[in-house]
Specification:
Blueprint lengths: L3 H8 L3 H9 L6 H14 L5 H8 L4 E6 L6 H15 L3 E6 L4 H13 L4 E4 L7 H8 L4 E4 L8 E5 L1 H14 L5 E5 L5 H16 L9 E3 L4 H11 L8 E4 L2 H14 L8 E5 L13 E4 L2 H16 L8 E4 L2 E3 L17
Parallel strand pairs: 1-2, 1-3, 3-4, 4-5, 5-11, 6-7, 6-8, 8-9, 9-10
Antiparallel strand pairs: 10-12
Length: 340
Amino acid sequence: MATMREVAEYAGVSITTVSHVINQTRFVSEELADRVSQAIRKLEYRPDQRARSLRTGSTETLAALVSDISNPFFPKVVRGIEDCARESGYSVLLSNTDESAETERVNLSTMLERRVDGFIVAPSIGDSDALENLIRHGTPVVLIDRPDDLPVDQVYSENERGAYEATKHLIDLGHTRIGIVAEIADIPSFRSRVVGWKKALAQGGLSPHTGDLRQAGLEVEGAYAAAKRLLSGSDPVSAIFSTNNLMTLGVFRYLKDAGISCPQMVSVIGFDDPDWASAFSPAITSVAQQPYEMGYKATELLLERIKGDTSPPKTICLLCELRIRESTGQPAADSPLSLD
């Protein structure tokens, strides 16, 4: 690997000039800068990032911690983070917490040891002591997806409004029994979606029946079991609101296994709009979030903090869009479902 001295000799300039060109610490004439740049390309010189971080106190690296990278929502968030970071000369280290507070604690510590300049975090379920300690010590942090009362910048979706619009769409179609598949643990975004569901029912003059709210645990298998419970017995629901894309897969897997046609026998609406939603048969009516924008805007906020922004914490609430497709329709007049 070429050294800075070799670049200087090739370009016919001093090592100091090469340093100024690379680090942009002093004006260098266009002619000299071009010679240095050509030498760098010719010799394939790569700056020693470790040495540079010791000089500047910055690694130009960000950490992104997401709760479940297998969820199609998060890769788009990460793409937004990476694109914004790259435009500012930063790289990104990605970590998956698997919804574990302990894994989050370990990963936060590991990233801190690597001297990252700041964190973008989708908080896991459970104790957030490690995250709170990070913030208390002044480390730049931006929260995404799941709003919290921590005093930092946050970017998340308009969850309550999105859920309200989804439920209202079903009510407008004539549904009076609308079940919901949700994670009812301590996740603010899902609590907001349940609130939106309840608000739409109340405004439509409806009340949820006992058992119309089913917990699915953020997983396909849990949603499968939840859909089975909602559609079994003598008084099943005529529509299901699924509050994330993995749960929606679980709901449709149960419909297929049980031989229940959608939307002829039951309507389904999802929250999240992954690429496969429109390719499904039937194409899935969904509440679309803005995952790419969430990651991009969170990174913009983080970079502002790293550069010294000391203004009060900012909150960005991104709009959701209801995308009506084939999986929702009017309820069957003769209530064809009665599964025991």
